[in-house]
Design goal:
CATH superfamily of the largest domain: Winged helix-like DNA-binding domain superfamily/Winged helix DNA-binding domain
CATH class of the largest domain: Mainly Alpha
Number of strands: 0
Number of helices: 9
Number of domains: 2
Largest sheet: none
Structural class: mainly alpha
Radius of gyration: 21 Å
Strand content: under 5%
Length: 185
């Protein structure tokens, strides 16, 4: 460090917290997600959030509780997003459920996937495109808005309506609750 140069407030505390908790937080997230990649991403997000709020760290009473609460919330947010992201759902299913030779189960999964695709095809062409860009290609609202030359608000509305329609359609077919428990139970 340069002589006379002093670290800004919060930087020293952040550095200390990083080296004290990085492995424990990674282990916690990994134990829930069963994915090294996901655990690395979420752990990085946690420390990014801490860095952005480093000036407020001195006011935190129970640092460990604070950090693990952030981790828990990040994991829940990830799982909520995964519920609608087909690629993520597939990865979670592969990691959490052992392979099965149960023909009935495989037929049921194929039927559920068919009904999901059927619901998507019943959306208007614009909503289909918004849904596919968001859930299948992983674009955020701003990227979709730019690509489709729509406002961000319009994209958000299309996506909300598409998800609401798909959920209702699957509910009416009696499979949404099954899918939820199958994927996240």
């Amino acid at each position: 460090m340069f002589k006379g140069f002093k670290k800004p407030a919060g930087e020293e505390l952040f550095t200390s917290l990083f080296y004290t908790y990085k492995d424990r937080l990674f282990g916690y997230v990994f134990s829930v997600s069963h994915s090294r990649y996901i655990a690395e991403e979420i752990t990085q997000e946690i420390f990014l959030k801490l860095w952005l709020r480093r000036h407020e760290l001195y006011f935190v009473d129970n640092t460990e509780s604070y950090l693990f609460t952030i981790a828990r919330n990040k994991i829940f947010n990830y799982l909520r997003k995964a519920k609608y992201d087909e690629k993520l759902v597939e990865e979670i299913k592969n990691r959490m459920n052992p392979l099965s030779n149960n023909v009935e189960e495989q037929v049921s999964i194929a039927e559920n996937n068919r009904l999901l695709q059927e619901a998507i095809t019943l959306l208007s062409p614009q909503r289909q495109l918004v849904y596919q860009l968001s859930r299948q290609q992983g674009l955020n609202h701003e990227q979709i808005a730019e690509e489709m030359q729509l406002s961000r608000h319009t994209v958000k509305n299309h996506l909300v309506q598409a998800l609401r329609f798909i959920k209702t359609y699957l509910d009416n077919k009696g499979i949404f609750i099954f899918l939820f428990f199958f994927l996240f139970a």
